[in-house]
């Protein structure tokens, strides 16, 4: 079964579910910032960047450039669905943590 497909420069990279390392710790679906308001936007974001493409896309490290930050609308955290199917609240900084974002890490 294909878990996801990554497209890069027109090249397709299918990723099988069996290849996900540590599925219980990999964010599959997340809640990004969609409103530039304190109830949704983490203080670390503060650069006017909101969801643009209809899906969460982590982009950079916490110290560089624009990111699709995770929302703070649930008590300072974002709801995230993990690759094993469970849902849990996670802090906004997880949007830059490749250990929870990259299925092959």
Write a concise keyword list for the protein shown above.
105 residues, mainly beta, three-stranded antiparallel sheet, two-stranded antiparallel sheet, 1 helix, 25% strand
Give structural notes:
- The structure is a single chain.
- By secondary structure, the protein is mainly beta.
- The chain has one domain.
- Helices cover 4% and strands 25% of the residues.
- The chain is built from one helix and five strands, in the order βββββα.
- The chain has one helix at 98-101, and strands at residues 2-8, 11-16, 27-30, 78-82, 87-90.
- The chain has a three-stranded antiparallel sheet with strand order 3-4-5, with no helix packed on it. A two-stranded antiparallel sheet has the order 1-2.
- Strand 4 and strand 5 (87-90) form a beta hairpin.
- The chain is globular.
- 24% of the residues are buried.
Quick take:
Helices cover 4% and strands 25% of the residues.
Unreliable spans: none
User: How many distinct domains?
Assistant: 1
Q: What oligomeric state is this?
A: single chain
Order of helices and strands: EEEEEH
Overall 3D form: globular
Q: How do the strands of the widest beta sheet line up side by side?
A: 3-4-5
Largest sheet: 3 strands, antiparallel
Which percent bin holds the helix content? Answer: under 10%
Radius of gyration: 14 Å
Separate helix tally: 1
């Amino acid at each position: 079964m294909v878990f996801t497909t990554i497209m890069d420069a027109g090249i397709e990279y299918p990723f099988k579910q069996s290849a996900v390392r540590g599925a219980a710790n990999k964010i599959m679906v997340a809640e990004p910032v969609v409103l530039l308001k304190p109830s949704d936007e983490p203080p670390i974001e503060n650069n006017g960047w909101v969801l643009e493409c209809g899906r969460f896309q982590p982009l950079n490290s916490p110290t560089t450039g624009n990111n699709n930050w995770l929302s703070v609308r649930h008590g300072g955290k974002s709801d995230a669905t993990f690759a094993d199917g469970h849902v849990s609240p996670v802090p906004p900084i997880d949007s830059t943590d490749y250990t929870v974002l990259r299925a092959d890490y």
